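User: Could you check the structure of this?
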Amino acid sequence: MHSTINNITNRIIKRSKATRDSYLDEVDGMFADGVYRSSLSCGNLAHSFAGCNTSDKDELSGNSTKNIGLVTAYNDMLSAHRVYENYPEELRGYARKHKAVLQVAGAVPAMCDGVTQGKEGMELSLFSRDVIALSTCIGLSHNVFDAVLSLGICDKIVPGLMMGCLNYGHLPVVFVPGGPMPTGISNDEKARIRQEFAEGKIDRNELLKGESDSYHSPGTCTFYGTANSNQMLMEIMGMQLPGSSFVNPDTAHRRLLNDKAVEIAVENSKLGLERSISRIINEKSIVNAIIGLLATGGSTNHTIHLIAIAKAAGIIIDWEDMSDLSDVIPLITRMYPNGAADVNHFHAAGGMCFVIKTLLRQGLLHNDVTTILGHGLEQYTKESKILNGEISFSEGADASLNLNVIRPASEPFSADGGIKILKGNIGRSVIKTAAVAEEHRIIEAPALVFHEQQDFLDAFKKNELNKDFIAVVPFQGPKQNGMPELHNLTPSLSILQKRGYKIGLITDGRMSGASGKVPAAIHLTPEAMDGGLISKIRNGDLLKIDAIKGVIDVIDYETVSMRAPSTIEAKNRNSLGRGLFANARQNVSTSEEGASFIL
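Assistant: Sure, the predicted structure tokens are below.
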């Protein structure tokens, strides 16, 4: 095992001892109490299965049959979650096959950042993660379940489900992915269409056709953003079946994987705490998750979400841990937006089983962890195949089947993992360098300050940005407006960079899992709302982003620090449901603490 990884893991264990011990004590107490079903009065018990058929009622009347609780994020507006429509009945049938009962414990909301980009709804996006965690707990609150199946794919949904399920840490939990849609137009073609629209070369009808040809059917979007990073994390942490993340929906393979997931949930429900989520998610599996994120160039959103997931399990991690790991973890995949391939190409080239195999071979992952299949991550070097009408796990590829998409850890695309912490007199932030060319990783340029995305886009359309600059976008942090993604800036920033200008970005907002080729210092803390230095930066101030040394500075610190913070016009944040989240904005933690209002 690599010594740096061991050292970072040990410091996380030491830092987390008090909170982790407290968490496990609570879990052990819940396990000792058992599920309510065994102690409910007849009236309570009758309520719990009144909606079941006669056979399931008979089974649940006793204490021997295992009851699996299903938490679903189904809706038919999200392509990724549309595939879950018929899962309750399908999985219920599999449960009966394995001599168990399945009930839908509850549903959680699922919103799409791709729909709300640049709109008021994005101000609820990050907070939806905590609402999902709360909703998960409410669904499980009846405490009549012996195990949990979680149906969730996209950005905030999987982290929220994890946070909620960890509050029922005595239960085994299995995640059931839905799979990506088949490949549409190429990612290069999609990027070309977006840039041509941003430059006014094509109209909205042509743009919409291109987008529709890309996002064209039920299933997860195929680029490697937060949704597919979620699937990678669930697999590398052992929370879903090996090789199951990127199997397409509505296939025999996917249905057999679903059957196997139910079987595993039923089996694990008979093993006590051994394969409960509290034993699978520990310090080593969290470090493995960070390593997976770095090695695959995953979404920067997980520099927030992983902190919140870990905290729900009593584990304390921070950006320093991620940055230090990034120094020794090689980047071994290229998927859009860090390359031309999509997740279907990645899966065909060897996928998660080869990623895990090559990292284990180089001593870059903890093997001594528990998964839903038992002890040892080496089980995840196998891929799922159909043998005699059933799922079989056999050893996966020993070598990449496409070196343009996946490389062995000994011959990576880059020696470092591509996510670094930046520290300086402006504060602390995260930068994703996986797609940023070496010549763009250091930039020193004057500031141009924009308080809203639209202000930047208006200036771009007026041709006012054809020069070197670092865009500063303050008042986008969690306390100000819920930390919306600023993804709408990406095409224009990329165009300016292509024109030969030195371009960068500094913001206390988010830039999503599709962060591009422009050096972007994001998630800045302290945020403007807290009086951070970003609120004192003015047009023309000379700024520096150094993604190699990990520096983010204003050059004339003495002058800038003496200024009063800027203010912005008060906006109505009550419409479209945002008023209900006023307390969330007031109580949310910082980005580096997970940006949570419940933890």
